Amino acid sequence: MSGMINQLVDIMNEQAERYNELLGLTLEEKDVLVQNDAESLQKITNLKNIVITQNNRLERKRLSLTKDIAEVMGYGNTDLDLTQLIELMIDQPEAEELEAVGVKLRDIIGKLKEAGEVNRLLLESALEYADYTLNMIRSSIEPELAEFPAKYGGIDSAPGSFDATR
Fold first, then answer.
1. Quick one: fold of 2-114?
2. Alpha helix (H) ranges present in the chain?
3. Mind giving me the DSSP string for 40-56?
4. Under DSSP, is residue 156 helix (H, G, I), strand (E, B) or coil?
5. What CA–CA distance (Å, rounded) separates 84 from 64?
6. What is the pLDDT of residues 63-120, one digit of tens each?
7. What are the domain boundaries of the chain?
8. DSSP letter at 155?
9. pTM for the whole thing?
10. pLDDT for the residue numbered 138
11. Is 12 exposed, middle or buried (0-12, 13-18, 19+ CB in 10 A)?
């Protein structure tokens, strides 16, 4: 049993390392977004995808091992979460290790969510600016479209447009 718990701790520590990598890439991504460097953004996105794939593999291993631990403890094929597992193992020395790695994972994931939210806001801001710029360009080229785009479906059907076929 303690071997399985030690294996679980190792998997979770490896997940924490992957999440730390992802956090570093996400923070780097923020700088790239601010600098508007599309090439670097693509490289970071590719690296993030690799790390996410690695972490997904670890998560599948962790879930499978947690089910195995539940079966060994007599809980059948139940999905035990970390809190439940720690409570069941309260008297065993591995419980402290599990709790410590759980706290580490929650902390890293919290930081990752914050950094992701900042990047999401930066992207939204960039998209709004691009949309605004595009509308300004469009209105300077085709003023009728800026005023009546939805109502009339474009410059050819806007009032006052000349169409020789009408």
1. Methane Monooxygenase Hydroxylase; Chain G, domain 1 (1.20.58)
2. 2-35, 38-72, 82-88, 94-141, 143-147, 149-152
3. HHHHHHHHHHHHHHHHH
4. helix
5. 16
6. 999 888 888 888 876 778 888 888 888 888 888 899 999 999 999 999 999 999 999 9
7. 2-114
8. G
9. 0.73
10. 80
11. buried
